[in-house]
Amino acid sequence: MIGFVRELARPENRRTAWIALLAALGGLLFGFDTGVVGSAEPYFSKALGIGSFGESWVVGSLLLGAVCGAALAGYLADAISRKWTKFVGGCIFTVAALGSAFAPNVEFLCAARFVLGLAVGTASFVAPMYISEQSPKRLRGGMTALNQVMITLGILVAYLSDYGLSGFSDNWRWMFGVEAIPGLALAVAMVVVPHTPRWLVQHDRKDEAREVLGRLRPESDVDDEIGEIEKVAGAQKRARLSLLVSPRLRPFLVVGVGLAILQQLVGINAVIYFGATILKFMGHSTNVAVYEAISLGIVNFVFAGVAALLLDVIGRRRLLVAGAVVMIASLAALGWYFSTASSFQHAQAWIGLASVLGFLAGFEISLGPVFWLMISELYPLGIRSKAMAVSTMANWLFNFLVSYFFLTMTKAIGNDGTFWFFGFFALCALGFTIWKVPETKGRSLEEIEEELGADASEAEAEVAA
How many Å apart are CA 121 and CA 228, to the nearest integer? Predict the structure, then answer.
């Protein structure tokens, strides 16, 4: 950890860190909206007179938009660059946030949030891609994890903002309208950051790529990195999406999509989107639940920061295993808490809150940052953007399914059964990590592929063919 901090203190790495921080504003958009809807939900559902079906669609419409946005971004990131794709996403987010604030009915609100989802889905994987392509290998984990830190910061800021606005007339409109601020901030930030060296080389702008790297790397490293990029740039132009299901590349797809799905099936966004509602299940009033939701945001943010410091020190797999164990224990405890009599639940609400906080801590040191990091470094370079788009689409699709059916599940199998259901998939995540997930910290593509049972040279050759 000390070594990581020392590396960041070097002049060239400080510049890289600032660029990564600006790029990670894309994560802030995702996190801010996640936090806003979780606290605004009790207010807009009452104001618009909608039930659980309408609530689920207000949440789910953004997630469907994010699936479409991720698919579109897979093309745009290569066609117009990572930088300008994120700029467009910031502009769309700003306009759609204002549309949500002025929504006259639930149909308009769902439509506005679908458009918001296009921007969120675009930013969700282009941000870690941009950061990983700007960062030196020895700092790639911590730098890319900045995106997850910014997601959690966005959630925390949204909780604080929602609490501060809860006393306003039409408070939910203000809560959604404030989202325009981070959207505008992302658009402005993307004007001043450089293109990634990889995208510049892909588009035959080698001199510009050398200039960018000259500001971010020691001079002795620039030529070697340019040479490495040139080796795969031509292959990336020719890569076909269908190659992902070929025998040599399928192991990468299994790991990326598997982590994408499990990240959602443990129930993280059900807890975030419906955090205030879950706290109300414990017997708290709406205003108290909105206030206590701030503690969820604080734990999210703190442990995402811890993960960013540890990823390049102890590795990805160890954090995944440790986090999965904590999530299993926390979800089991939360299921037990809800299985007790309501009188006990109300009297011992701290047990439920502590279990939720434990679950969030476990998630933020494992599946939260590690999934986004691994899909940015796991796939062969020649097909990385397309593979990341597929994994991100799977992630958003299961985000939608879990969030949409969460309230239905609590009615069908109870709060206890719902959280035990999530606990089962946390157990699956532990098994999947031990069985399938390789360690990518400081490792070459060849070493990763050997662990996955693929042949490195043949996999890259297949992409280049």
Answer: 29
Tell me the domains of the chain and their CATH numbers. 2-193+239-464 (1.20.1250.20)
Coil, strand or helix at 123: helix
Residue ranges in 102-179 assigned as alpha helix (H): 106-134, 140-144, 146-165, 171-177
Residue of higher predicted confidence among 465 and 246: 246
Distances (CA, A) of 393 to 225, 246, 256, 366: 30, 20, 11, 20
pLDDT in tens, 156-198: 888 888 888 888 888 899 999 999 998 999 999 999 999 998 8
Which tens digits make up the pLDDT trace of 360-407?
999 999 998 888 888 877 777 667 777 888 888 899 899 889 988 898
Is the Cα dihedral 6, 373, 118, 419 positive or negative? negative
- On whether the CB atoms of residues 392 and 65 are closer than 8 A, the answer is no
What the block records as the tokens of 132 is: 């990983």
Of 61, 12, 92, 126, whose CA–CA distance to 392 is shortest? Answer: 126
- The DSSP call for residue 195 is P
Contacts of 409 (CB under 8 A, 6+ apart): 417, 418, 421
CA 17 to CA 312: how far, in whole Å?
A: 15
Which residue type, as a one-letter code, is found at position 28?
A: L
Residue type, 2: I
d(CA 143, CA 148): 10
Positive or negative torsion for Cα 66, 302, 150, 195: negative
Supply 50's token pair: 């909608």
257 CB contacts (<8 Å, ≥6 apart)? 390, 391, 394
Handedness of CA 390, 392, 396, 401 (dihedral sign): positive
Task: Count Cβ atoms below 10 Å from residue 2 Cβ, excluding itself.
Answer: 8
Task: Identify the top-confidence range among 34-48, 139-153, 236-250, 387-401.
Answer: 387-401
Burial degree of 370 (CB within 10 A; 0-12, 13-18, 19+)? buried
Amino acid 319: pLDDT: 92
Q: What are phi and psi of 205, to 5 degrees?
A: -120, 55
